[in-house]
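Message: Study each token:
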Amino acid sequence: QVQLVESGGGSVQAGGSLRLSCKASGSILSFAVMGWYRQVPGKERERVATITTDGGMARYWRDQVTGRFTISRDIVNRKVDLQMTALEQEDTAVYYCMGLSRQDQIWGQGTQVTVSS
């Protein structure tokens, strides 16, 4: 089973940028879709952005991130990145990478993003 490992989280001031990376242990083409979700304590995990691994079609699921976040995939290097700019305090959350295939849905362990004022 392909495993996913996130990196790139950290603390940043509002208005700053971070780039999250999700590295797969095998080919990302084993997934039809990959994406990024986020979760804050006491709330449900929410879908942020997804991308098809084959065609690279991106979709953003939160109005608040449209125009600020960009998802991309790199088949050769087996990763999916989330470039986050103009970060806001409301973006503070644990960010999870997700891979969806016909058989399964795989999650990474999560990476914390903290945005301070």
User: Anything to note?
Assistant: The CA atoms of residues 92 and 114 lie 5 Å apart. The mean pLDDT is 97. The two ends are 40 Å apart (CA to CA). The longest strand covers residues 93-100.
